[in-house]
Structure formats: C-alpha cells, structure tokens
Input
Amino acid sequence: MNSPVTRTAPGKIILLGEHAVVYGRPAIAVPVHQVQATATVDPAAPGSGLIVSAVDLDRVMRLNEAPGDDPLASIARLTLAHLGAAPPDATLTIHSSIPIASGLGSGAAVSTAIVRALAAYLSHELSPATVSRMVYEVEKLHHGTPSGVDNTVISFGRPVYFVRGQSPQTFGVGAPLHLWIGDTGVASPTRVAVGNVRQGWQKDAARYERLFDQVGELVEQARGDIEAGRDAAMLGIMMDRNHDLLCQMGVSSPELERLVAAARAAGALGAKLSGAGRGGNMIALTRLEDGTRVAEALRQGGAVQVIGTVVPVS
Ligand code: PMV
Output
C-alpha cells in the first residue's frame, strides 16, 4: 500500500500588468506563501476508487461519478491521464486558506496541490512547467480565456515575468518587497471583469491598446528596478500609475478605491487593485517600518482580511 502524501501550493498576486496581459503585454506576479492550498492523498480500501473530498466546500465525490466539467475532478483526471495511471484506491483531501474569487489564485493553487499530491502518491515528481500546463487546462474552465499567469507563478513558486504564449521567466529580486494585501470582501469572478474589458476594447480598440501599451512599459521598467533592488519608492509610483490605467479600463470599484486611498494616506509607497478588479484584492507596497500602520488603515478602510507578505531577495 502507498504511503500518505501531502503537497501544497501558494497563493499569488499580480504585482503589475493584469488585464493588459490578456492582450499580449507582460505582467509580473509573485507567490504569496502566507496562504496556501493543501492536498493529501491517503490510501483507502481496495475497490473504493479515488474519493475527492473538498473540505472547505463541504463536498465529497467519487472521481468516476463526478461531472466532466468539475474542476477538481478534471485536474485529477488530467494528472492520471498524464501519468498513464488508473485512479488509485485512495482519498484525496483538499483544504485551502486562500480566499476564493478574490485574485489570489485559489483555483490554480488547489489544482497545483492536487497534481503534485497525486503524482507524488504514484511516485512521480513533475516539473513546474508540466504542472503549470496541466493546471492551465483547468483554469480555462474557471475563466474562459486565462492568460496563464496564475498557473505559472503558482507552479513555479517564484516571481515571474509573464508574456502570454511565451515561456515564463522567473527572475531575481534585489531587495525585499513588503506588500500588504487588502480584501474588499466583494467576490469578483475573473470571467466577468475580463469580459467587461473585452467589451470596452471591442468598442474602442485604439484607446484600450494605448492603455495596454502604457501598462506594458511600466512592467518592463519595474522588472529592471526589482531585479536591481532599486529604491522601492519608484516601484510604488509605478503601481499607482498602473492602478490609474486599470481605473481607465473600468475595473476599479468604490471599495477598491477606498482601500487604495487609505493605504496611500497611511504612507504606502504605492497601491493598486490586483487581479481582475471590481472587487477582490488590492495591494500596497510599504517600507518595512510603515507596514503595520498601512495594515491598520486597510482594516479601518473596510478590508475584510489583510495579509502581509514579503517577497524575499532571490
Ligand atoms: O483575478 P485573478 O488574479 O485571477 O487575475 C486575473 C488576471 C487577469 O489579467 C485579469 C486575467 C488573466 O487571465 O490574466
């Protein structure tokens, strides 16, 4: 009988470049290790098949009875097909501390943890690129036309510079980045916000292309600054500009504006919405010593959850 295995995957945030990344511009995303998805595979009675138990969703299902488009079953099936393995007699238990539909990559993290745990249970370790490719297939079920940034940063577990359709580049960080993530508590399905931007682009492609180009330039400059460990104040300014461009794309919301303003007023170097927008999360970049004050301002400004994370030197 196989031994039980547990594998995890982090959450993620997009530092710069969301939405424009869907249209071929670069984005930078970083893992958030303070929140994570966990998948455990335990041996079960012979003949039981694979039982999938999503604890937070209060769902238990047998893989062979799960609907074809169920994301949890889909990633389990893809993994088994990739390994050429039959479903083991086992229980796959999934937990996640990553808030759902808020831009922290919960879907991709759950999928990543499942691939890793099932593969390890069957004595395989898959490369981050292979895991990422499989997770991408399931991301398409969640939001139609994903750029692929979530599955990439989560499977690699490192900061990535990402251009749709190109091999992802992980990159080094020259000085630690202190980030605070504020959750508006407003669930915002990525598919909806991405659809709204598409409608805007269809109405006035020239205007949207100009906005995307400006985002792309910010991302290029930011990557150089982050790698070189230059003063974070400049990165903060670029985050503010990126937020402004996202507002012009129509994806901010009153709740996001309140949190962004609160963070800036409390001394953040920069603040912006992160992910699809319209709700979900915003991020603030701070100096180490200002972090607690900014976190408190986010709570006062209505954030339902505030998570601090440091992108370490690498
Ligand atoms: O809400 P999130 O973090 O899943 O991010 C969506 C990011 C978009 O650029 C808006 C869409 C995408 O597929 O990259």
Summary: The mean pLDDT is 94. Residues 172-311 form a domain with the Alpha-Beta Plaits fold (CATH 3.30.70.890). The chain is about 40% helix and 25% strand. The chain has two domains: 5-169, 172-311.
